[in-house]
Amino acid sequence: MKVLSVTSEIYPLVKTGGLADVTGSLPKALASCGVETTSLVPGYPRVMEQLKNATPLVVFDDLLGVRASLLHARVDGLSLFILDAPSLYDRPGGPYVDAHGRDHADNWKRFAALSRAAAEIASGLLPGWQPDLVHTHDWQSALTSVYMRDMGCTTPVVITIHNIAFQGQYSAQILPEIRLPASLYNMQGLEYFGDISFLKGGLQTADAITTVSPTYAREILTPRFGMGMDGVLNERVSILRGIVNGIDLDVWNPATDPYLPRNYDLTSLRRKREIRQVLMKTFDLDTDDDGPVFAAVSRLTWQKGLDMLAETADEVVANGGKLIIFGQGDHDIEQHLLATAQRYPRRMAVHIGYDEPTAHLIHGGSDAIVQPSRFEPCGLTQLYALRYGTVPVVSRTGGLSETIIDANDAAMSARVATGFQFHPVTTDGLRLALRRAMHAYVEPKMWARLQNQGMKAKFSWERSAEQYATVYANLIRKSGRAASTSDIRRASF
Ligand SMILES: Nc1ncnc2c1ncn2[C@@H]1O[C@H](COP(=O)(O)OP(=O)(O)O[C@H]2O[C@H](CO)[C@@H](O)[C@H](O)[C@H]2O)[C@@H](O)[C@H]1O
C-alpha cells in the first residue's frame, strides 16, 4: 500500500514540535505493516541543506503563480518528496515565523501551494507513482483534499488533527489566489466565522479524521476544546477516532542516547545522578541534593500552562527543589518566566531556546518532567520522560490523562502508577501535585518504584501504527480500489 503523507515538518529534517516527531517516526512503524509512505515537505533551507543525491522529478511552471520543482530523496530511512519553491520557502526564520518570531505574511500561500502540489501528485502527476491513500496533518496540509476533490480525484484521504488550536484562518478574498472556486465559501465548505479555514476544508473533505488520543477525540466535540470546530466535528463524528501517538524508541533511548553524558537503563538508574550534576551545571544551578529537579521542555504558549508552573516556584524552592524551563514561544510568556527565574537565583533557570541535545539532557538529568497543559491532544514529552525514568507531573487532560497513571494509593499498591496527575487545571491543582511529588521524592523506595513502572510502560508505535494501517486499508477497500504494491524504487524516477 502506498501512502502520500503531507506535512509541514518532519524529524530529523525540520521540527518545531511534536508534529515532526510523529510524521518522522510513523512511516518507519508503518513499514512493518506493509505501508510504504512517502512524505511531501516544503524545501525550507534547513531541509535543502540536508539533502544528498536528490532526484529532480518534475517542474511546476505555475504552482499558484510560483515556479517550483519536485525532488525525491531518501534521508534517514524516510522517503521524501521535497517541494523546492524558493520564493515561498527559501528565507530566514522557521517554518512558520520569520527571524523576529512573526508569522510569515504569506503562510496561506506557502501551505496552499504545498497542498496543491500534493493534490497533483495524488492525481497522477508522476509517471509510475500514484498513492493509494493520502494522509494530511493539521491545517498546513489540510487543503490537499479540497484541491483533490476539486480536481475530481477520489483517492481516499485521512486527516490527523495534532492541535486544533491552529486552524489556518484567512480572509475569503484569497480564494482566487489559491485557485479555489468562490462556491466553496459556504457552510459545508471552507466558510468559517466570516473567513475561510484551511483546517475546516480538510475536515469537510477527508474520508477519515483522526486525532492523537481517544480522550482528545472526545474532548474536541465540546465547545471548550473544539475551539470553534466542534460543530463541524459533531457532524462528522462517525469518521472521527483517536489513535494515541507512539514514540521512536531508537531516538529516545537512555541506553544509547548520544546526547547524554552517561547512558543507563532500568538496571543502572543510579547513573542518572551523574547526568543530573551535568544538567545542574549546564543551567547554572546549585548542585546540592536537597530536593527534586522539576523540568519542562516545551513550546512556550498558553496551551502548555507554564505560567502556572512559574507561579509555584516559591513552593518548589521552599522545599529544596529546583526548576528548569527550556523552550521558546510567545514573547510575553518568555518574559514572565525569565522575570520569575531572576527571583530564585541558582534554584530556578529559564533558558529560551530550542535544541535537541538540551531537550535530551533535560529528560535524562531531571527527576520530574512537568506538563501543566491546559489542553494536550497527546503530548510526547511525558512519554519520553517515562522512558528516561523521569517522573511526569501532568494535568489530567487529553492524551496526558490516558498515558500517565496517577500515583494514588490504589495504583501504587497495584504497582501500576507512573506519575502525578492534577485536576482542575489550575495553579492550586498543580501546586498540590508538586507537593505530592516532593513527598514521594523523599521516600526513595516509592520514587524508585514510580521510575521503574514508568520505564516499563509501553509506548512504541507498534499498536498505533497497526491502527492507522487498518484505517487506511478500510478506506481503500471502501473506495473499491486494490492497494497497489509497487515500490517507489520501481517508479520511473
Ligand atoms: N525548546 C525545545 N528544544 C527542543 N525540543 C523541544 C523544545 N520544545 C519542545 N520540544 C520538543 O517538541 C516536542 C513536543 O511535542 P508535544 O507532543 O509534547 O507537543 P506539541 O504541542 O509540539 O505537539 C502537538 O502535536 C503532537 C503530535 O501529535 C501532540 O502530541 C501534542 O499534544 C500536540 O500539542 C517534543 O519532542 C519536545 O522534546
TrEMBL record:
Pathway: Glycan biosynthesis; glycogen biosynthesis. It is an enzyme of class 2 (transferase). ADP-alpha-D-glucose binds at K15. InterPro entries: Glyco_trans_1, GS/SS, Starch_synth_cat_dom. Residues 2-235 form the Starch synthase catalytic domain. Keywords: Glycogen biosynthesis, Glycosyltransferase, Transferase. Its EC number is 2.4.1.21. The keyword Cell wall biogenesis/degradation does not apply. It catalyses: [(1->4)-alpha-D-glucosyl](n) + ADP-alpha-D-glucose = [(1->4)-alpha-D-glucosyl](n+1) + ADP + H(+). HAMAP family: Glycogen_synth (MF_00484). This is Glycogen synthase. It comes from Rhizobium deserti. The gene is glgA.
